[in-house]
Write a structure and sequence with these properties.
four-stranded antiparallel sheet, about 170 residues, globular, single chain, about 45% helix, two-stranded antiparallel ribbon, 6 strands
């Protein structure tokens, strides 16, 4: 009952038309596609797979390139992002089985049965204009993790992306 009532109320405020809810959903989809292009150009984060809707899944580019290193670095980025009092960023993780990860990224060593990766849902229309800042913030977390600033044991893996991020850039 509650879910049906919530959907009914949503459709009263944002009717399921291109000018209603469609406009909101389209902005999230554009934001996800824009961010996936920025991630493709990054040296410090990798896209897990192309977004189908407004959800972007990504992981830190680690060295060694292994599920264990990715899992640990993702957990640190999640914790460090939320703990930053000056500029918090709230991410979520998704556990991916080794078999699924290997299908998409065969260059990553399957040294455990799976890994946590990072996941962000870009569901608010205003997120579209926030993507460049969010991307810089996530890159900053990944670069700090790779440099050992949060006690990381792994190091950044430069996989030849063409990103222009420098550690000196502000988040």
């Amino acid at each position: 009952g509650a879910a049906a009532a919530a959907l009914w109320l949503t459709f009263q405020v944002l009717p399921p038309t291109p000018d209603g809810l469609g406009q909101v959903l389209a902005a999230g989809r554009r934001a996800a596609l824009d961010w996936s292009r920025l991630i493709d150009a990054s040296n410090v984060i990798d896209l897990y797979q192309r977004p189908e809707l407004d959800i972007v899944c990504y992981f830190p580019a680690t060295s060694p390139r292994s599920l264990a290193a990715i899992d640990e670095a993702s957990a640190r980025m999640l914790a460090d992002g939320m703990a930053d009092p000056a500029d918090p960023v709230f991410l979520s993780t998704l556990r991916v089985p080794a078999s699924e990860f290997g299908r998409r990224h065969p260059d990553v060593a399957a040294d455990r049965d799976g890994a946590r990766i990072l996941r962000s849902v870009l569901m608010k229309p205003e997120t579209e204009s926030y993507v460049p800042r969010l991307h810089k913030r996530i890159q900053h977390l990944a670069a700090a993790d790779a440099s050992g600033a949060s006690g990381a044991s792994g190091r950044l893996h430069d996989h030849g992306g063409s990103g222009s991020y420098r550690a000196a850039d502000p988040p």
